[in-house]
Input
Amino acid sequence: MRLAAFNGSSRKQGNTRILLETVCEEVRKADIDCKIISLAAAPLRGCLGCFACRGKARCVAIDDGFNECFTDMLEADGILLGSPVYSADVSALMKAFLERAGVVCATNPGLLRHKAGAAVAAVRRAGGLTAVDGMNHFLLNKEVALAGSTYWNMVYGKDPGDVRRDDEGMRNMRNLGENLAWLMWRLAS
Output
């Protein structure tokens, strides 16, 4: 079993990465392999809305890093989305990825059906729920079963590493990892 975790931050080693690693640490304890994919390593453009992906299960209009990232999503049993909060929403990288993945999935129904998923956000002040909701809406709309935790899946911090000082938020990430692993195993049985 494998979890694909997508880092929507331009900071490859920033707070969002810390959150993803924390969730993945718990998932690995349940004998599930985790791969963290940095969307910043594969700069992505937004969707053209051409629908040329219909029946192809991949984007055929833009040649960038999207298809490689999307293949990781398709091949995984679980999906973890992570984004910093910029202007009270997900990052442009995450938005472009979800926009394109959403159209590919809409024109090729069932691609993500019955996978497990979760979303997390690194937040400075506000907009965390908007960001988490946006990522969760993508997952739910693609028939992904969501894992939850004891509180909202966001952790507060401004500078890289600051999220580690949000004890409640980090406990929530560890609990989310346990719940996501549990859900992945239940869906696999």
About this structure: The two ends are 12 Å apart (CA to CA).
